[in-house]
Design brief:
By secondary structure, the protein is α+β, with helices and mostly antiparallel strands. Helices cover 26% and strands 19% of the residues.
């Protein structure tokens, strides 16, 4: 990550006036944001590990800020910490570049296209389904507009996810679980909350 290379460049006593800067940095946070896995570029490695890999990356402050890092020979705890950081960066990078890219959904997205509904922070999918082939003027008493589409839900991942109040007839935020224990069921969604995907 670019910030790490900049810190390393400065800590090693290099000078921007006489030394070539390190090149080839990859911003993992930016990659994750481009894939709608996070809302910001400057996300920590531990948070990226949680978001992308669904794994916990230990960040013991007593090791992270230890003066042992100044030693010519690092103790085992520092070596383990550094190796785990490097390995985690590599696995996140591989996961992001090999992940099937999703695309935004618009009113022109064809019926039958597989989609996922994203959580409010856009970090993870809460449900999967297909764009409905029919586009009525209203669905459940609510207008179907250019920025709203009907999705036939086939998989619910987060039953407690609250569907926006303006998308349901009651005008009250409603959990996905309220639409029935069985799938499939149809749901009106904002296109901004959807992304195309490989069928689940």
């Amino acid at each position: 990550m670019k910030a790490n290379l900049t810190r390393l460049f400065n800590d090693c006593g290099f000078s921007i006036l006489k030394d070539a800067p390190f090149v080839g940095a990859v911003e993992l946070g930016a990659l994750a944001r481009d894939q709608n896995l996070t809302t910001r570029n400057n996300i920590s490695l531990a948070d990226l590990a949680s978001t992308v890999l669904h794994r916990y990356l230990p960040k013991d402050p007593s090791i992270r800020v230890s003066t042992d890092w100044d030693n010519p020979e690092l103790p085992p705890a520092q070596i383990q910490y550094a190796v785990l950081d490097i390995y985690t960066c590599w696995v996140i990078h591989e996961s992001l570049i090999n992940r099937p890219a999703g695309h935004p959904v618009t009113h022109a997205t064809l019926g039958g296209t597989p989609v996922k509904i994203l959580s409010q922070d856009r970090s993870s999918p809460v449900a999967y389904g297909f764009i409905a082939p029919d586009r009525p003027a209203k669905f459940g008493g609510v207008n179907v507009t250019q920025s709203r589409v009907i999705v036939n839900i086939t998989v619910v991942k987060v039953a407690a996810y609250l569907v926006h109040a303006e998308l349901v007839q009651s005008r009250v935020e409603t959990p996905l679980s309220s639409f029935g224990p069985d799938v499939p069921f149809s749901l009106l969604c904002h296109t901004k909350d959807l992304q195309t995907c490989v069928s689940e």
